[in-house]
């Protein structure tokens, strides 16, 4: 298997300056979007790792602009942390000097990053300390990007967190129900339909200026931050494809979504999906330790609500993808997107029940 992958990856990796002999390539991580591999390169007897990614062009059709965003963000963060080579992703350019390589045979695009050693990602949080460290790193990331020069970033996915538009898309897909799957998820459909009214709050406030637009990450799930193996500290925010103008509430909301319950996003036993106030409190403390200084009162007021909103939006996206035939998120089993949707809606239910406690804590 590994040999097969190596044979497939070697001709691609050959277009990047890896300064040695490629000896291994293995699928890496559990992202839902890109195809990620860890490369092992023999550099004069030393085994050095890299990350190679096949970029999902169905999701990110404009690769040059996407990579320009990532160059700008990584350059800015690296310049602010000259002593710390792990603070930002480091792009390894292709032979022609571009930050990606496009295969003329099939137009697929690939990029390479230095592998961040001595740190890992987790798919689910295991302790309040981990929640604190992850949130602290995402807050620091937003803070660092506040003074990035060069004007707004390119919008790599237009209306990415425009929840009302996500809802309209869901309605259209449901109406068509081309695979006759609606009958398999009536409870989830009813849940979604009952939640339309809350969808618009953040986009409306962004539009009328009550909330500021900032440079945000927009995909701050727990496995998009590398945590140091020894200290547990958040060393590097990764997966920068969706860095673009947005609200900090998109980031904090997605942190709440993925960092306040210990169950996996695709857990099938819903009794294991438990929103944990202790994790939430650690998350708030970690986030405010780095972001507290620049947030407006309105941003702070909406922090607890953002969890419900982003968790609902993500559940809705999983449900839409299930109905549409699993065309967006990678799946690894039948009904995978529906399982994911169910955990998200379960978390929304629990956050609704704990609204007062969450608000009280942030206050
Ligand atoms: P996706 O967009 O598919 O989620 P990511 O960019 O998040 O892809 O990468 C998938 C996983 O690969 C991450 O969760 C992380 O575990 C690992 N990873 C990505 N970049 C690096 C890196 N530079 N060093 C070490 N691990 C990385
Ligand atoms: C995707 O790329 P990854 O796996 O980190 C998705 C996020 C979803 C998340 C759900 C570009 O994130 O928006 O919240 O899955 N990324 C994109 O797990 O759509
Ligand atoms: Mg990711």
Strand tally:
11
Can you tell me the number of structural domains?
A: 2
Give the overall shape.
globular
Ligand roster: adenosine-5'-diphosphate, 2-acetamido-2-deoxy-1-O-phosphono-alpha-D-glucopyranose, magnesium ion
Gyration radius, rounded: 20 Å
How much helix is in the residues? 40-55%
Structural class: alpha+beta
Strand content: 5-15%
Terminal Cα span: 53 Å
CATH class type of the largest domain: Alpha Beta
CATH superfamily of the largest domain: Aminoglycoside phosphotransferase (APH), C-terminal lobe
Low-confidence stretches: none
SSE string, helices as H and strands as E: HEEEHEEEEHHHHEEEEHHHHH
Sheet with the most strands, sense and barrel status: 6 strands, antiparallel
| Total helical segments | 11
CATH architectural type of the largest domain = Alpha-Beta Complex
Mean pLDDT: 97
Gist of the model:
The protein has helices spanning 2-13, 63-80, 128-145, 163-176, 186-193, 201-207, 248-259, 277-291, 297-324, 336-353, 355-362; strands spanning 21-27, 35-43, 46-54, 91-92, 101-102, 109-114, 119-120, 214-216, 225-228, 234-237, 244-246. With 363 residues, the chain is α+β, with helices and mostly antiparallel strands.
Looking at this protein, list some descriptive labels.
11 helices; 11 strands; binds adenosine-5'-diphosphate; globular; alpha+beta; Phosphorylase Kinase, domain 1; binds magnesium ion
């Amino acid at each position: 298997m590994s040999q097969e992958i190596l044979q497939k990856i070697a001709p691609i990796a050959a277009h990047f300056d890896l300064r040695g002999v490629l000896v291994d390539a293995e699928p890496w991580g559990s992202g839902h979007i890109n195809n990620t591999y860890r490369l092992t390169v023999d550099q004069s007897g030393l085994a050095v790792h890299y990350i190679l990614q096949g970029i999902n062009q169905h999701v990110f059709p404009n690769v040059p602009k996407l990579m320009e965003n990532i160059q700008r963000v990584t350059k800015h963060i690296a310049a602010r942390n000259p002593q710390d080579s792990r603070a930002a992703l480091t792009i390894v350019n292709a032979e022609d000097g571009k930050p990606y390589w496009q295969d003329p045979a099939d137009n697929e695009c690939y990029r390479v990053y230095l592998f961040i050693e001595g740190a890992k990602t987790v798919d689910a949080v295991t302790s309040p300390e981990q929640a604190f460290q992850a949130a602290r790193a995402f807050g620091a990331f937003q803070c660092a990007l506040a003074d990035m020069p060069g004007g707004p970033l390119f919008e790599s996915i237009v209306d990415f967190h425009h929840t009302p538009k996500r809802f309209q898309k869901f309605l259209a897909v449901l109406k068509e129900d081309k695979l006759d799957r609606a009958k398999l998820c009536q409870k989830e459909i009813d849940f979604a339909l009952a939640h339309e009214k809350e969808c618009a709050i953040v986009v409306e406030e962004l539009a009328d200026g009550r909330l500021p637009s900032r440079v945000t990450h927009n995909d701050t799930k727990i496995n998009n931050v590398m945590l140091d193996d020894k200290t547990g500290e958040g060393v590097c925010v990764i997966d920068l494809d969706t860095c673009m103008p947005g609200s900090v509430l998109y980031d904090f909301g997605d942190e709440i979504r993925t960092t306040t319950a210990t169950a996996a996003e695709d857990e099938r036993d819903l009794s294991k999906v438990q929103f944990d106030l202790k994790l939430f409190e650690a998350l708030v403390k970690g986030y405010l330790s780095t972001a507290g200084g620049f947030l407006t009162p309105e941003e702070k007021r909406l922090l607890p609500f953002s969890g419900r909103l982003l968790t609902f939006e993500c559940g809705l996206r999983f449900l839409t993808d299930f109905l549409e035939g699993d065309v967006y998120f990678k799946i690894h089993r039948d009904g995978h997107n529906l399982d994911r949707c169910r955990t998200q809606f379960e978390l929304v239910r629990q956050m609704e029940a704990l609204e007062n406690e969450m608000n009280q804590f942030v206050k």
